[in-house]
Amino acid sequence: MEKYTADYLTIALPKGKLFSLSACLFEKVGITAEHMSEKSRKLVISNHDLKVQFIITKTSDVPTYVEYGAADIGIIGKDVLLESGQDVYELLDLGFGKCRLMMAVPREEKRAHLMDYAHTRVATKYPNIAEQFFARQGMQMEYIKLNGSIELGPIVGLSESIVDIVETGTTLVENDLEEIAHIMDVSARLIVNRVSFKLKFDRIYKIVNDLKQVLESGEI
Ligand code: PRP
């Protein structure tokens, strides 16, 4: 078993859509480890020469590991970060993992105005962001938290609308849903634990600068 080592830099990477580009980005700045795979059953992957360890976690857990300092650095989508409300430094917009958070409704039952959906049910993975958005519109809604396949909500009568991310738009089209409100643009962010940023400043500062250069060169 890998031992937790305080002088190591611990990097949390999310499983799923952001994993391979995140691993690739760190590789470009010379930070890598053998057998990096999101399918790995090994939960901590270390490079003892570099004194670095990667932890590969469920996407929604990345901000938690970073806030509590179990990871010094993490990569996460802006949507998950904002929803979590976790207190971390957000140091870089990495520019990949681009999508948008929006409200969508069944095309056949589209109402004339956004306000016509006030007091209806919204299925979403993002109840906090959704609530802030609707509050800004002066709308009170009922939020139904789902963890995946959000588009199913209005199809089976669980909700009148959804708030979810759209990347290519295929899922909306295939389920006869139409976007009616844009809530925010989303992309991957580099986050850092507040204490680590002070205690491991030189290492983290160098990594942030190296990552910036890779991003500016357009290699990712
Ligand atoms: C996300 C999102 C949409 C879909 C949008 O789901 O929740 O369902 O991708 O992508 P598209 O616009 O390219 O069709 P994900 O694949 O992460 O799975 P999930 O439904 O289980 O959350």
TrEMBL record:
Enzyme Commission identifier(s): 2.4.2.17
Alphabetized PANTHER family for the sequence: ATP PHOSPHORIBOSYLTRANSFERASE, ATP PHOSPHORIBOSYLTRANSFERASE ATP-PRTASE
UniProt cross-references to HAMAP family, sorted A to Z: HisG_Short (MF_01018)
GO CC annotation terms, alphabetical: cytoplasm
Free-text note regarding domains: Lacks the C-terminal regulatory region which is replaced by HisZ.
Biochemical pathway: Amino-acid biosynthesis; L-histidine biosynthesis; L-histidine from 5-phospho-alpha-D-ribose 1-diphosphate: step 1/9
Catalytic activity, reaction form: 1-(5-phospho-beta-D-ribosyl)-ATP + diphosphate = 5-phospho-alpha-D-ribose 1-diphosphate + ATP
Subcellular locations according to the entry: Cytoplasm
Quaternary organization: Heteromultimer composed of HisG and HisZ subunits.
Recorded name of the encoding gene: hisG
Name this polypeptide is given: ATP phosphoribosyltransferase
